[in-house]
Amino acid sequence: MSGLLRVKLRRDLRVSWSRFVLMVVAIAVSLTVFGGMLNAWAAIGRETGGAYMSTGPASATIVLDRGVTPERMAAVTAAARTRPGVLEATGRTQFEGAVEVGGRVLDVPLQVFVAAADDPMRMAKFDVGQEGRWPPSEGEVLLGADSLALLGVAVGDSVTVRGPGGQLPRLRVAGTVYDPSLAPSPQEQRGRGYLSTAALGRPALLEQVKLQIAGPGGREPSRDRDAVVATATEVGDWLRREQGLTVAEIQVPQPYAHPHQWQSDVLLLSLMAGGAAALLLSTILVANMLNTLFTRQIPQIGIMKAIGARSATIGRYYLVMTLLVAALATLIALGPAIWIGRALLGTLLTTLGIQPESLAAPWWAYVVILVAGLGLPPLIALPPLVKAGRTTVRAAIDHRGVESGRGGLLARLSRMPRLDRGLLMALRNTVRRPARFWLAAGLLATAGAVFVAGMSLEAGANAVTEEQAAQRTWDVELRLGSPAATDAVIGAVRRVPGVTRVDGLRTEPVGVAGPFGFPVTRTYPDQGHGRITLTAGVTPSLKLLEGRRLNPGETGAVLISQTARKNTVPGLAAGDSVRLFIGGRPTSWRVAGVVEERGGAGVYVTAEGLAAATGRPQEVDQLRVFTAGHDEATRDAVAAAVGRAATAAGFTVESASSISRSEAVSTGHMGPLLLVLLGIAVPLGVLGLIGLASTMGANVLDRTREFGIMHAIGARPRAVRRIVVAEGLLLALAGCVAAIVPALVLTWLMGAGLGNLFMSAPLPYRISAPAAGIWLLLALLGAALATDAAATRASRITVREALAHL
User: Fold this and answer.
1) Within 13 Å of residue 639, how many CA atoms lie on the same side as its CB?
2) Are 264 and 357 a contacting pair, CB within 8 Å?
3) Concatenated DSSP letters for 730-777?
4) In whole angstroms, what is the distance from residue 110 CA to residue 167 CA?
5) Which of 166, 252, 279, 603 could form a disulfide with 34 if both were Cys (CB 3.0 to 4.6 A apart)?
6) 692-742, pLDDT tens digit by residue?
7) Count of alpha carbons within 13 Å of 103, Cβ hemisphere only?
8) CB-based burial label for 621 (10 Å; 0-12, 13-18, 19+)
9) Burial level of 377, CB count in 10 A (0-12/13-18/19+)?
């Protein structure tokens, strides 16, 4: 670039500094959002995959119908390691029980994982904190690090655990465990404990055979679920034929993927797409602002052409100007993008229960940010840049700026005698440049649609919570360690003061027949995610998608949720037959109907139907207790009393708690999601206001002579200012009106997508009226502020300045 062009560049930057600042801010804001989402997405797979694989997770878990001694299990697993396709095998067991601390039974259950004292921990392992060691000594237990606060205990405290086999000896909390293969305890509302068989205080029995299945090459674990299922069922057949063991279930989750990992990946990809859209909109806005600048300089381009400047020289000049804007914006955005990415990544990893090794994104993510920041603005601005460089001297001489005109509607409005002339002028000038008008209004409409949709999604999520709370009409939930006779346990609980009604039900994990006739499920090691649960005794008040509901006392028929159908036999329909394994034994059922269930995978039968299918009397392992008062104090008091009454009657109580704990589980899964979604609307709103400020500034420059004439014929500065501010407010109103349809559609799309992602069913369709009102207020206030500079300049234009304007 020649010295004269450098002088011109400095002059242009000094004269139009406010416009260049807006360009830099527009690109920097959108690049910050895009870069932050990209950094988080690029690193989360590495962190979740690395943390999950560090535990040496099992490819499959074969659950036996009854436990065997550690010695027998050691012999079985040693033989299993010699089977084709098996890399590693070990025996484990686990159970869930009530926890007593300081003489008080907690309403949060403890999920206990048990391994043999001599287990080499080559698979399904965990990290023990500095305060503990593995295996813990007899009378000691290790707790998940995030379970301490949930249970209200500390290292060194003593706890009592009541499992299915009765009460364990008093255990001292000897240390903590970090287990990234499980979702966080606060989110699931259950503690995690880790014991060796030596600490049980009674003969230990192990009923889980955990396997690592080899992939292609035979050295690394397989990531093909179908291959894992095939090998695991072959091992199950071998256990049945040669070891004399009965297989109750084969659990094969998605190989080597955290139970919530795919949700985080999809969420981040969606947010990154939103950031990319914001970046594209910002570059379009900058290209429009540059085009306005190029148009203003057409007379200067003509002069440069007249004294010998070439089109290529002028094109390079404006390219340098564009690159300067892009480089400064990228430099500003890089630091905040890194910070936002690491903060978002840390939040999501906390949701997954993972302690990151590093929050830094891989090198290629920074390259993508630099390429997007430096390359996209010049690319989008290339057409107006080339057009400006090719302007001829004749075209520059003939340039007269923007012609004023009136549309038919505006012409008719101007003839109305009582219509305010200033408002009419503002309306005319608002739509004077259609491309500029639609860009500014479109940016505001996009931001408004995202904001209203995000708030509406929150309303939809709250509707789910309210819907689930309405369905949970009981107050206390009592879980037994083993099934008991229905009349006996209900009779014991019904006598507790404050209890008005008791419903009993029976729950059983079920599976659908796979190869060799074994039930195969997608259940994760926590026995919650991927699990399909059969419930008998209570007919759910869920939305019926197809078929019919169960009749009272009906046998041989089931209701199945859409999630359970998706995870087992996707093509299953009302009227079809399905073969379910209950307690490891096959049963045949007819599908009466399909119901919509959010956040679960259930199969529902009548108590009579389950008794007929299993050949056992009607039993319950869970009670729903209704109380006279529905406040939390009454619920807690009745829960404690119900637990004591059931224990005194000889029943093993696993947990007795207020129903509020179930509500906390639902809330925990949707926690940070909506805040992140609303965060996308902020940069879009900033872009919208920048676009509005740019549009108003360009409109004032275009009409410099017009404002000079108005001042010459006596217009007061206040009147001119009022016209310009009205233009900005009309633009904001147009953006809000244009946002109505996109907001409705976006709310539906995101509600369906995120609802299916997190709850296996669309969120209820809700439009937040307060959100629409808030956005309208923010848009008008922002428009007034964004228009202030342009209005001030318009009110101060002198007649001399207008006459000198080209």
Assistant:
1) 27
2) no
3) HHHHHHHHHTHHHHHHHHHHHHHHHHHHHHSSPPP----HHHHHHHHH
4) 13
5) 279
6) 666 666 666 666 666 677 767 777 777 777 777 777 788 788 888 888 898
7) 0
8) buried
9) buried
